[in-house]
Design goal:
alpha+beta, Arc Repressor Mutant, subunit A, SH3 type barrels, 2 domains, two-stranded antiparallel ribbon, 18% strand, transcription regulation
Length: 219
């Protein structure tokens, strides 16, 4: 099960856009996603394939994409975050609806579970209501040792295969040059606080918690 703590803002937005364009579980065309996100079709396909590798979407070339059950749960959490943020901004702070929607869309990706709970309590949202889905329901792994998990959740001394790095930037290239690329096996030698000592086939390196959380591995 994928943890939302390991998802980048761009990954969450892609899930949100798939959810917005889908209807009754129908597949969404990548061309429609490219138009909505203003991204190149190749970039959209690459992001979707990565989300597919961690079980959040079902993608078939030339047939489009739809959210899996877990992907839908992530979309529901994002919607819930947006709704309570928008309500807080409009009802408590008196912000105009359009501005509140824009700000809430930015803030929904960084909202912590604690703040989400506090906002929900402030707004009178019933946390016992099954229709309200909170962050922790996605963050908690149902299985004791899931197939896919962020590197931060890998046990010390365990080996795992890198499946996806949830960022596409210069840091990704640096990690791949060090042997931390999808398909390669790594060993978590030691995890100490917010530092993770990794051994790859070619070298050893130390990663901070922020980077380690964006590396999805299969144990």
């Amino acid at each position: 099960m994928a943890s939302m703590d390991a998802l980048s803002e761009s990954a969450e937005m892609m899930i949100k856009n798939i959810h917005a364009l889908s209807s009754d579980g129908q597949r969404v065309r990548t061309s429609d996603l490219a138009v909505k996100t203003e991204l190149q079709p190749a970039t959209v396909t690459e992001m979707i394939q990565r989300l597919g590798e961690i079980g959040l979407v079902d993608y078939q070339a030339y047939h489009g994409v739809y959210l899996t059950k877990q992907g839908q749960r992530v979309a529901n959490v994002i919607d819930h975050r947006f709704n309570i943020l928008q309500r807080f901004l409009t009802e408590i702070l008196g912000v105009e609806k359009d501005e509140a929607a824009e700000v809430a869309c930015r803030m929904e990706h960084i909202l912590t579970r604690d703040v989400e709970t506090r906002l929900s309590n402030l707004l009178g949202v019933d946390m016992e209501d099954d229709s309200n889905l909170f962050c922790h329901e996605v963050n908690v792994n149902v299985e004791p040792e899931p197939d896919f998990l962020p590197l931060t959740n890998l046990k010390e001394g365990k080996t795992a295969k890198v499946r996806i790095i949830l960022e596409n930037n210069e840091m990704t290239k640096t990690l791949e040059q060090a042997g931390l690329s999808p398909g390669n096996t790594i060993l978590l030698k030691k995890s100490k606080g917010s530092s993770y000592d990794i051994e790859t086939e070619s070298t050893t390196l130390s990663l901070d918690e922020d980077i380690a959380a964006k590396i999805i591995v299969q144990n």
